[in-house]
Structure formats: structure tokens, C-alpha cells
# Entry
Amino acid sequence: MFSSIHSMTLFGMHVQRVEVEADLADGGLPVFEMVGFLSGEVKESKERIRTALKNSGYFLPPKRITVNLSPANMKKSGSSFDLAVAISLLSSMGLIVPEELSDTVVSGELSLSGDLHPVNGILPMVMEAKKSGFRRFVLPMANAREGGAVEGIEVIGVHNLKEVISYLNGSIKIAPTVLSVDEILKNAHDYPHDFSEIVGQLPLRRGMEVAVAGMHNIMLIGPPGSGKSMAAKCMPSILPPLSKEECLEITEIYSVAGLLGDTGLVTERPFMSPHHTVSPQALSGGGHVPKPGAVSLSHRGVLFLDELPEFSRRALEILRQPMEDKEIHISRTQGNYSFPANCLLAAAMNPCPCGYYPDRNRCRCSESEIHNYLNRISGPLLDRIDICVPVSEIPFQELSQSTPAYNEASASIRARVSEAAEIQKKRYRGSSIHFNSDLGVKELSIYCSLGLKESRLLEQAFSSLHLSARAYHRVLKCARTIADLDHKDKISYDHLSEAIGYQNGFRK
Amino acid sequence: MQDNKYFSEKITYLTPFDKAFPEKLKDIPNPPSGIYVKGQLPDPNIPSVAIIGSRMASAYGISMARYFSSHLSGAGVQIISGIAKGVDGVGQRTAIEMGNPTFGVLGCGLNEIYPKENRDIFESILKNGGLISEYPPDTKPLAKLFPLRNRLISGLADIILVVEAGEHSGTSITVSRALEQGKDVFAVPGRITDPFSAGCNQLIRDGAGIALSPEAILNALGLPSESIAPPDCKKKLAGLHLAKLEKKVYISLDLYPKSIESILNQTGAALAELYPALLRLKLLGLISETGQNNYYRNL
# Structure
């Protein structure tokens, strides 16, 4: 008898529907054959399924068993087909009513005992199932919370094969898992680092606040030991709150990468800090079947590159395209994969090889040494950094004081950032723009119009400071964010001056 | 002998027997057996000053080189130096920008461009000045040749002005050669705690002339000079209608770069009002920025 059931598989971030067909035929020698352009791990599932069925109390009949995964021209990999194949088989054996399967999608990996193990990429699969009009999605219990974040489809978490069969046959009822994303996002977080731990550093604090409020790329420049890395570690504590849409976007990526924990949702903006020896592939995403890399794993969050000039040039150049397009494209023989990659790039570096420029009492670097050091970072990459801030060494008196003059805590910075984010959300409602940094050239003229005095300032600054065309847009976007933090509709002279002050000093 | 290649590149070779060979170079100890020249030679009837200093100059050294060079070359003095990084290059570039004669004495052949940072000087110096070397045109820049050429720098100059030099600077070689040749040496004083000026201050202690203003040097050359007041920053502000904070910020700065953080601490201003003030001062040309948000006064 023939039967079929729906399942899903992943191609990068793209979900593809797969039909799992099974047929039992009399005559000939008993054989269990799986076809449909399968990779090794899918072929192996034959043995897992046979044993899992046995340990759940079902024996495969000694017949000619053929399983096909359709479309058959597409290479299938991963372990998520186990459950679908098992159910399809059981249905063709007459143990599950086929009508129950027509509007159901199943996915999950079987263990030999018949228990279900979680699989990667559940969230995008459930989203796709909902889009395709399926009524329910049966998946391993460990994936239930993740799938439950999608509204409008019944997400049924099951523990083992027996439970699935009873459920599908109607002998037990399982309540769908529903996860209220809004509710979870409201919960406050604890952050390991807080801005109250940073002494002084007013320009740095302000620069960070502006960067985070508009999700602008930021570069921290300062001598060794001045607190660049520490400041970056405090960044998560002031990032603007996640919207539900963004939360699901991030969770999708983590789900595909298999990095989702037990929570089932990524409820914070990610903060990735790859070491400077990172390979280009680890940054961009890669592998035989590409997985998201650090750029994508920091989507809607922060990608922090400490000691920027130490990164390999090839790795850094990979960042250029995603920083512009907000997604990264990877080409393999099997096809092109694209992953979202809209992150805030935070970088830290010393101003010169020894790190103390312009303190000439300590810095002994020649101009050409400094030049070569900065040249390790390509101009186009520097061009995409909206804000550069100095990190200065803290004088001993300030460090030793028990109550330093200004060490505002993250909570109050975050409150201002959230307000600015709210203003941007309102302004860009209905468009694909989330933050000021997403503004394109077209939108700039709409949202960042300047008064006469301000235009003149910008013109003057450009001719005397030799700024590029991209710098022009950068300044405008950044000034927009500063105005938003100030709750002003119009960009003022002061906002613009501050934005110009954030331009990279070495290129001015 | 004039090789075709050298000739086509407008390089001439002069020996002491040539009429054009500078008299000044004949009298020095260990005179060159001949010199290669591209462009012009210094006019023997016009006074020349060598503006020299360390290659690794501070912002103060750079400003001072520019200040002295502009006044001296403005008064018609020919500027001699080695087109090195730092003080040398700045002094010569200033003269070139003003369209005045300046001459570079190289420690390598005339076909070499060293240091690369000063390529612009090599390209523009020939208009009103020249390049001089005692080494054949294709000689590579070798470390051992540079101390030797210093005797030609001091030899061609009437006065040696040391703008900025550390304790163990290559400048001291030029100074010793100058003293052997019986030339006057002037030094620009610096702070006694500043390692960049240690060499200059030492020269002053040892009896060098104190270059408090370009006027001192012009007087020593016997040139008429109206009194040149030392650069007065306050005077510069007159007529600019600076806001109170802008003035305060300007006064808090000096020739040594200061971070925005220390400007904040010194002026007690709010960060948001400091950015516009700094930008305005910068656009007015009163201050410059170096590194990330470090500011210093322009002279």
C-alpha cells in the first residue's frame, strides 16, 4: 500500500517542502530501499527507523519496501526525516489513518529506542508550514517551544514514536504548545557587564549610546588597557529592546545553525566576538552545506572585532558586501545560499603599532609605521564605520575614587536608547527600515533634510575636511540618530557638529 | 663625465674646477670631490639657512618648522635641508608652498626618492630650487651615507637652525659639522621636560643662539627685519567673534595634542556643546585634529 506525508528540509535559510512516500509491495525478496538523492546521513536513517520501530513494538513486514523523498532531484541531508519516514511506513502498513496525515507536517530524528531527538531549523520550517496552509506540525518535544512561537498553526511536541502514533490515531490528545513571544520579551535580563563599571570616558559613552540607538557601526580607538574591550562587553546592556519580528528573525538563524538552547527563542540581541584568528568562512558562513557564520549570528545584534588590524585582510574584506546589502550570499555547487546579516559592527583598535599615539612621550612610531598599521584596514571598510570614538587612559585619581564623577548605569542609558528606537520605529512604520543606519540614499533626503545653516556647515566641513560622498551620508544618518536621542524632528547645527566629530580622525 | 642618461634627466656633475661649483663647499673640511645637481644651486649672494630637526617630530616641532620657514623664506632666505621626514620636510614644503627657493641635499643618488612620504617635495622643489648629492644618481639610500651628507647641508648654509631635536638625534651630527665649519647654530627652545626638545635645550646650554623668533636669525644674517612678534594666539582671535566656550576651548589647547576627554575636564563644558565648538575652531583653521579627537592649536 502507498502512503505519503509532508516534511521540510533546509537549504541555508530557505525551507523546502519534502514529500516522504512509502510503498509496501508483495513479491520478490524482502528489501528496504530509500531513494530520492539522499546524502549519507539520510540513507543511514533506514537502520535507525527499523530499530526504533522494533523497540516501539512494530515490526517491518518482510516485503519490498520503497521510500522516496520527493522532489527527487534535490540533494537532501540532515537527520530530520526519520520521523516522517517512520510515520509514512506505519501508514502504509495500515497502522495510521492516512486522512490524518494530509494537513500535517512532521519532522524529527529518531533514536534506536524510539525517542525523538531535536533537529535544527524548526522555526523556519514551522513558519513555512504555516505559510503553506498546514494545520499542524508534529515535532520533537525539545523543539516545541521554538515552533510554538509561530501563531496560527498547531505545534505538537511529542516525546517518542509511540506517542506520535497514539496521537495521530486519536487515542490520546496533546495540547499544542503556544509561546507568547511578547510576554517573554518583556522579561528583564541580567547582563554580566554594566556601564556603571566604566569610569569616566564621556566621549566613549556618548558615542556608544548614539551607535546603539541608531545601530550604527562604531570603532573604538585608544591605547592598550584603556577599556575598549570592556566597553564593548557592556554594549549588550544598552541595546534597544527586541521587537517580536526581530526576535523571530534571529531565532530562525540560530535555529538553522543549531545553536538554540532550551529556551526555544533568542530573546536578546546577539553579541558575537570572534577572535582575530577567525577564518573568512567562520565569519561569513560556510561549509559543504553552508551554515550561518558570525556575521549572520550577530544579525540584529553586535559583531565585535577586537584588535581589528590583527584580523586577516581576507576575513575583513568579506564584511564589506554584507555591511552594504545587509545579507550575505554564499555560492556552492548545489546552489546559492543567502543569510541575513544586518549587524552593528563594533571594532576596537590601537591608534598605532605601539598604541600610544599621539602621546609622543611614549609613542615612538614613525609616521609611515602608523600609516602602514592603519592601512591594514581597507578604506572601503573604514568608510562603512559611522562613528569613531577615542578611548582615553583613565588617570589614577579617577580610578581610585570610590565614587567617580560620572559612571551612569546601563539602565538609564538604555532608557534613552529605547526612546530613540521607539521614535525610529514610528517614523519608519510600514517600511523595511528599522533603524537610521538602514536608511538608503533615497530616504536620506526625506528624513534627514537640513536647514540653511546646517547645509552650509556641512558644505564647509566637507571642503575643508576632505570627506567622501559616503561620509556625507554617514554624517547625515548619524546626525539623525543624535536628533532622535534629543527628541527633535529637525537636525540642528549641534547634532550635525557632533556627527562630524565622530568621523574617523585618521581620514579627516 | 656626463653620461647620456644623466644628461637627459637634467642632472649635471660639477667638480671644484667647474665655475658653478659652490665656493662654500670648497672651504669645508673633507670637501666633496664633486656634486651632482638637478635644478638650481643656491645663489651665493643670498643668505641661506639650514632648517633641520628630528625625523620624528612632535606637533610643536612641525608647527615651529612651518613658522620659522615661512618667515625666513618670506624674507628672501634660501632654505637648505635634507628633505627628511619630520622637521626637514616640513620646513622645505613650507618654502615650496610659498613659491620660494629651497634646496635639498640628499644622502642617496638623485634618481632615488627617499623618503617616499616626501615625494611631493621631490616633484615640486625643482621649480624654484634644486637637489644636490655627492653620490652617483642611482645610489640607493644607505644609512651610512646620510651622516656624511650632513656636512654639505651645513656647508651650504650660513646659519643652522635646529627646530626640534631629541638627546641622541642625527641632528647633532649636522651641528658638529657646522661648528667645525665655523657656522652659527641656533636652536628653538622647548619645555625642559620635553624629550623631543632635549637636544635643542642642550645646544642652548652649550652656547647656541636662542631662536626666540625668526627675527633673531634674520638679524644674525644681517638682513633688515621688522620686528616679528612671537605668535600670539590671543591676537588671532580678535575679530573672529568666538563664542565664550569656543574661546575657552581654544585657550585650553596648546601645541601638544590634547584628547577630547581632557578638554572636557579642563573646560568643564558638556560634551554636546564641545563638539560644535571644536568643529567651529577647526573650520576657522585655529586648531587641528590628530588621531581620533585629539586637538592642538595651529600657529
